Amino acid sequence: MTGADIGLGENLGRQSRTRRARRLKYSIMLVIAAGSGLALLGWTQTWYGLILIDSAGHAGPLAVSGQVAAPAVSALALSGLALAGALSIAGPVLRAVFGVLEALLGASVILSVVLSELDPVTAGAPVVSQVTGVTGTDSVHALVSTASSTLWPIVTLIAGVAMLAAGIVVIVTLRRWPDSSQKYQSVRLAADRQVAGDEAAAEATATGDNVSEDTTAVFAAESDEFGFDPAGEGDPEKASGEDPTDPVSAWDDLTRGSDPTDRPDKPKRRG
User: Fold this and answer.
1) Is residue 226 in some structural domain?
2) Would the pLDDT of 117 be above 90?
3) What pTM was computed for the model?
């Protein structure tokens, strides 16, 4: 087996793992969205039917919807829908946080349904009070003769279980998910840009030093060849460190009675 065959096999294996990870990711997101949507749908339906006693003056059952029996389910379901979208761009750390939140949302939906199922009369007390004008838990219970339940509380309970299970699966499998798009990982990109900038600066500095050394060597060689003295070693004034254009040096020349503008290397004007 050649190296090309090995590389091809590794590439195919990597692509297969990526496809499985994407299927896992989108499957969990679909379960979260479906569970949240089902919980929201169940919240809008009729959960219980309450039949009052004859003296209550109301004939027929009173319909109690999930909006009355478990008002918190709507907020929990909407949060689950938003979380499903956030998971699509979350990194490993946020993925774990969102998994815990999703599990808590599912547990809260389950708790809301269970509490209403344990006491449908108390869950539907606002409807009874609106019809009869009677308030108080004991008084409302005294007016209700029969309470029946529909399938929608069970449907909402199943939706909550799905949300809870999906959150747990997110926590367990978060390392198997594919990486999110780089544009949503600003912290890592900023660090990468900083490292790249430091490497570029170091490379530019090293290149500049080499260019400077090469230029100095070439300039010195040309100076030796053409007899050019950039350091002023052949000029007594430059060798002594005195600058004839310096005002202090010019004043000293005047004090000694010499003309500071009269330089041997300066061409004289023709009158």
Assistant:
1) no
2) yes
3) 0.62
